[in-house]
């Protein structure tokens, strides 16, 4: 808009002031001025002068005045907003009952069945029980090596591990600790040689995993077969099994009902300090009873110490396998046992507990 529009005569309905030119009611002199153009030019409205308070204030006033002239609200905060819907009243929900993470019916059924097989073989023929240990070791090795290959592409040789693991269990029963160590050394050597038949890439990684698997599963299991060689070997193995199961049951029951403080959240979020106290209490009570009534020459106070040691070793063994499974990114080592997972998921607390029980029983009552 040019400055000449400020001198236009008033139109019908015009709301601006009549004096717009240099002389009231007359157009300014000059050939450039055209009265027809002046009649068609819309006059600029007068905006009241406001005290100048700075560039920001003037700009803010202009934008607000323009909004007011356009029929809108003067300030942004005055923009009409949609009415908020009234909140729906929340119906209080009944507290949810805690649920176990596994199928308890299947777990109990499988556990009772395995227990019956173990006890029957243990008290009927000792050699049959040694065979049960060997089968469990071979299946555990198969699960462990399979998960290593699937998740980490680690090819630990299964054939020498399975043959050497079964031989290790038999050697521990037949020749004691010396036989177990010799079988362990030969198994490690067999792993090194067997892996040489494949390309050298990943050789060190694969044989390291193989030696670890040989120590972790069959070598620790040989202490169970060595317990069996004593005169009261069946009672010693039964004590070992009962204390481990009671420790796990106490940890589960107390932790599920009262657990609030995490024991090792980065390794196993489900384990609590209250559960550990339950494991210790249950295992110590069971240890006192077992040493008093099952072990020849045992006493209740030895059972208290034995139960405490079993609770500690079983918990550490469970955490150790949880560490392995977290590294592999899996929940269970297998699916062979409904409600339990795989064989290794049941051996996790038994394997590291076996040498502890064997050693303490030898110290307390001798090798038998």
Automatic annotation (TrEMBL):
Belongs to the CDS family. Its EC number is 2.7.7.41. Residues 82-95 have a biased composition (Pro residues). It is an enzyme of class 2 (transferase). Its main location: membrane. It is a multi-pass membrane protein. It is found in: Cell membrane. It comes from the Bacteria. The lineage of its organism: Bacteria, Bacillati, Actinomycetota, Actinomycetes, Kitasatosporales. Keywords: Cell membrane, Lipid biosynthesis, Lipid metabolism, Membrane, Nucleotidyltransferase, Phospholipid biosynthesis, Phospholipid metabolism, Transferase, Transmembrane, Transmembrane helix. Residues 1-102 are annotated as: Disordered. GO terms for molecular function: phosphatidate cytidylyltransferase activity. This is Phosphatidate cytidylyltransferase. The keyword Isomerase does not apply. Pathway: Lipid metabolism; Phospholipid metabolism; CDP-diacylglycerol biosynthesis; CDP-diacylglycerol from sn-glycerol 3-phosphate: step 3/3. Pfam families: CTP_transf_1. It catalyses: a 1,2-diacyl-sn-glycero-3-phosphate + CTP + H(+) = a CDP-1,2-diacyl-sn-glycerol + diphosphate. The chain crosses the membrane at residues 104-122, 128-144, 156-174, 180-197, 209-228, 234-254, 275-294, 350-367. The keyword Repeat does not apply.
């Amino acid at each position: 808009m040019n400055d000449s529009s400020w001198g236009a005569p008033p139109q019908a309905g015009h709301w601006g002031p009549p004096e717009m030119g240099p002389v009231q009611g007359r157009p300014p002199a000059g050939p450039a001025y055209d009265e027809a153009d002046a009649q068609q030019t819309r006059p600029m409205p007068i905006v009241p002068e406001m005290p100048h308070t700075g560039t920001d204030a003037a700009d803010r006033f202009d934008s607000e005045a323009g909004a007011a002239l356009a029929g809108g609200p003067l300030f942004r905060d005055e923009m009409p907003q949609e009415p908020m819907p009234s909140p729906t009243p929340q119906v209080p929900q009944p507290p949810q009952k805690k649920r176990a993470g596994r199928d308890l019916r299947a777990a109990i059924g499988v556990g009772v069945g395995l227990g019956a097989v173990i006890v029957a073989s243990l008290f009927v023929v000792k050699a049959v029980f040694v065979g049960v240990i060997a089968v469990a070791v071979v299946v555990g090795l198969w699960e462990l090596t399979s998960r290593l290959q699937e998740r980490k592409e680690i090819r630990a040789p299964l054939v020498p591990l399975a043959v050497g693991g079964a031989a290790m269990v038999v050697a521990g029963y037949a020749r004691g600790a010396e036989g177990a160590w010799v079988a362990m050394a030969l198994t490690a050597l067999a792993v090194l040689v067997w892996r040489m038949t494949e390309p050298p890439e990943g050789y060190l990684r694969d044989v390291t995993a193989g030696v670890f698997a040989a120590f972790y599963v069959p070598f620790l299991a040989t202490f169970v077969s060595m317990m069996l060689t004593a005169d009261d070997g069946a009672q010693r193995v039964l004590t070992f099994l009962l204390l481990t199961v009671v420790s796990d049951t106490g940890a589960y029951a107390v932790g599920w009902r009262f657990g609030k403080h995490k024991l090792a959240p980065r390794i196993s979020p489900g384990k609590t300090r209250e559960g550990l106290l339950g494991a210790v209490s249950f295992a110590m009570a069971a240890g006192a009873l077992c040493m008093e009534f099952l072990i020849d020459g045992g006493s209740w106070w030895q059972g208290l110490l034995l139960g405490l040691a079993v609770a500690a070793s079983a918990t550490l063994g469970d955490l150790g396998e949880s560490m392995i499974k977290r590294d592999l990114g899996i929940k269970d080592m297998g699916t062979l046992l409904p409600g339990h997972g795989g064989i290794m998921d049941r051996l996790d607390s038994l394997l590291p507990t076996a040498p502890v029980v064997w050693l303490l029983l030898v110290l307390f009552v001798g090798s038998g």
